[in-house]
Prior knowledge:
Layout: H1 3-24, H2 29-35, H3 40-47, H4 57-67
Amino acid sequence: MSTDVQKDGLHRIVCQNIKKYRKRAGLTQEELSEKIDMSYDYLRRLESERGQKDFSFFTLYKISLALNVPMDTFVIEQ
């Protein structure tokens, strides 16, 4: 399996989990973006499977803290 395929699959899992746990926390994209001090557009693209493909470890860490979800949870397909 190529690295690009693996990266795309991991991105899909992470973006689905960010969206799932954001909704579970009762937050809109705008509310979460304010909590993590990122633009709404960036978060919207991050949650989109066709959008933002690269994000930093620190960004995922900030989302993890804001949603009170362990970081490793975001990379587990559920």
